[in-house]
Amino acid sequence: MKVLFISDLHLKAERPDITRAFLHFLTDTARSANALYLLGDIFEAWIGDDAPVPEFEPICAALKTLSDQGCMLYFQHGNRDFLVGDSFLQKIGATLLDEKQLIDLPIGPALLMHGDQLCTDDKEYQDFRSMVRNPAWQQAFLSKPINERLAIARQLRATSQQRATEKTDEIMDVNAVAVATALSESKVELMIHGHTHRPAIHYAQLNATHGTRVVLGDWDTSLWYLSCDENGLTLVDEAIG
What residues contact residue 97 under an 8 Å CB cut-off, 6+ apart? Predict the structure, then answer.
């Protein structure tokens, strides 16, 4: 059994090279997988399933084809695409995951997260996250005209980028206690997440001898994915041509 994990592609019209790389990944690498997990921020922004993005249609078609061929697709909300809804998931043939999702892998159980909720030192971001994840806020936002939603999304993104330049790398990374707590509460020793754009496999995350945390990489100059089978975990880095 082969399972793949990706996150943080940040697909957008301005980066057709990433779209092309993803299409190749879906039709080539992922074709041999039994399951593909999309762990958030697949899109740079998502303002609702009713807001068409023509540039994403080939991606949707390729995901649906992969699903129809027998590869199980799973989607987890990120901090950019938390408004992905049932309509889009049905369109691509994917199942929505909880923001903390336990799964069974060929090597044992694992906890999946996008990862932003682990950045607890960034109090400002966590307050913002609580606001936009509130169902009342989301309902109010989705009730607005598409043009207005686009304007709000651009403003929020500009503000976020500005604030990020004022924060240290340590504040924007995961908190070690939050990681250990999540692993302990879930009673597992493997966590897989994205968000921080710092791909690596970390050990001793629960204590001095236990706990592994795999951080998925973002797609920019390279495409990153995690492959898991009976032989273990492999974090793969390939150039985006």
Answer: 37, 74, 75, 76, 112
Asked if residue 79 belongs to a known ligand binding site, the reply is yes
Residue 186 assigned to a binding site: no
199 CB-contact burial (10 Å; exposed 0-12 / middle 13-18 / buried 19+): buried
24 is in an annotated binding site: no
197 is in an annotated binding site: yes
Question: Tokens representing 97?
Answer: 């995951």
The Cα 122–Cα 85 span in angstroms is 27
pTM summary value: 0.96
Q: Is 210 annotated as a binding residue?
A: no
Residue 167 assigned as binding residue: yes
Range of the domain at 17: 3-239
User: Cα(first)–Cα(last) distance of the chain, in Å?
Assistant: 29
195 is in an annotated binding site: yes
50 among the known binding-site residues? Answer: no
Residue 8 among known ligand-binding residues? yes
CATH number at residue 102: 3.60.21.10
Question: How many domains does the structure of the chain reveal?
Answer: 1
> Which tens digits make up the pLDDT trace of 114-167?
999 999 999 999 999 999 999 999 999 999 999 999 999 999 888 888 888 888
